[in-house]
């Protein structure tokens, strides 16, 4: 497991780095927020230990930036011991919070607990297969099967189908589908209509009394609840 420590207290970092390496972790260190973000952005890490008070870029801003880039677990460190700081840290997306001085063994125990939880969640997500009747949608492998035969979809067709089947019964407007799938403002809602038409044909879901992908007239589309 690769860990990044971002803290300007060099003696603390030196001691913590040694302890973590003895536990089998690969450890990188940065001593200000700017350096920490550069190292984080150019390397993959399993967990970040982040001080709240940092030179150049403070820990709050660093945590926000890490959250924008993904779900890497963050444990925040601070010299302040107050509920306000704790709530602030957790609301920013930190997974845990420790006040200095802290017990290294406790920190390691919390790290392992977070990493176990993340691994469990990742395994659960990998195992998720969405089904409806004889239709199977596997997001991890991006495979769609109908009556045990693979259905060839374009990347965008798959993304639309996954969005709808993952949220069965929820109606999405054409604008919402476009924004969520294309990750940009909707310029032409007719694009969604064409993709839905193609999906229905490929899934042999066209013209049935109760198709899997249903239309909410004047609103948008949704995947039928089983």
From TrEMBL:
Q: What Pfam families does the annotation carry?
A: Response_reg, Trans_reg_C
Is DNA-binding a UniProt keyword of this protein?
A: yes
Q: Cite the OmpR/PhoB-type domain residue spans from the record.
A: 127-225
Query: Domain Response regulatory spans what residues?
Result: 2-115
Q: Which GO terms describe its molecular function?
A: phosphorelay response regulator activity; transcription cis-regulatory region binding
Which keywords has UniProt assigned to this entry?
A: DNA-binding, Phosphoprotein, Transcription, Transcription regulation, Two-component regulatory system
Out of the domains of life, which is the source?
A: Bacteria
The terms describing its cellular component in GO are: cytosol; protein-DNA complex
**PROSITE patterns found in the cross-reference section:** OMPR_PHOB (PS51755), RESPONSE_REGULATORY (PS50110)
Locate the DNA-binding region by residue range: 127-225
Q: Which InterPro entries match?
A: CheY-like_superfamily, OmpR/PhoB-type_DNA-bd, Sig_transdc_resp-reg_C-effctor, Sig_transdc_resp-reg_receiver, WalR-like, WH-like_DNA-bd_sf
Gene Ontology biological-process entries: regulation of DNA-templated transcription
Question: Could you tell me which residues carry 4-aspartylphosphate?
Answer: 51
**PANTHER family attached to this UniProt entry:** ALKALINE PHOSPHATASE SYNTHESIS TRANSCRIPTIONAL REGULATORY PROTEIN PHOP, REGULATOR OF RPOS
What's the stated role of this polypeptide?
May play the central regulatory role in sporulation. It may be an element of the effector pathway responsible for the activation of sporulation genes in response to nutritional stress. Spo0A may act in concert with spo0H (a sigma factor) to control the expression of some genes that are critical to the sporulation process.
Recorded protein name is Stage 0 sporulation protein A homolog
């Amino acid at each position: 497991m690769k860990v990044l420590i971002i803290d300007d207290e060099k003696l603390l970092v030196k001691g913590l780095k040694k302890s973590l390496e003895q536990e089998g972790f690969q450890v990188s260190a940065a001593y200000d927020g700017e350096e920490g973000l550069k190292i984080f952005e150019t390397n993959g890490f399993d967990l970040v230990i982040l001080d709240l008070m940092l030179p150049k870029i403070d820990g709050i801003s660093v945590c926000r930036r890490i959250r924008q880039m993904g779900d890497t677990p963050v444990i925040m460190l601070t010299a302040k011991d107050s509920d306000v700081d704790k709530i602030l840290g957790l609301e920013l997306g930190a997974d845990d919070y420790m006040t200095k001085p802290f017990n290294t063994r406790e920190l390691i125990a919390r790290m392992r607990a977070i990493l176990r939880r993340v691994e469990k969640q990742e395994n659960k997500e990998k195992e998720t297969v969405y089904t409806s009747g004889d239709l199977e949608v596997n997001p991890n492998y991006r495979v769609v099967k109908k009556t045990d035969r693979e259905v060839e979809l374009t990347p965008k067709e798959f993304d639309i189908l996954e969005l709808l089947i993952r949220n069965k019964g929820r109606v999405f407007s054409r604008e919402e589908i476009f924004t969520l799938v294309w990750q940009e403002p909707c310029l032409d809602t007719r694009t969604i209509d064409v993709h839905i038409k193609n999906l229905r044909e490929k899934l042999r879901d066209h013209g049935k009394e109760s198709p899997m992908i249903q239309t909410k007239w004047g609103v948008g589309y949704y995947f039928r609840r089983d």
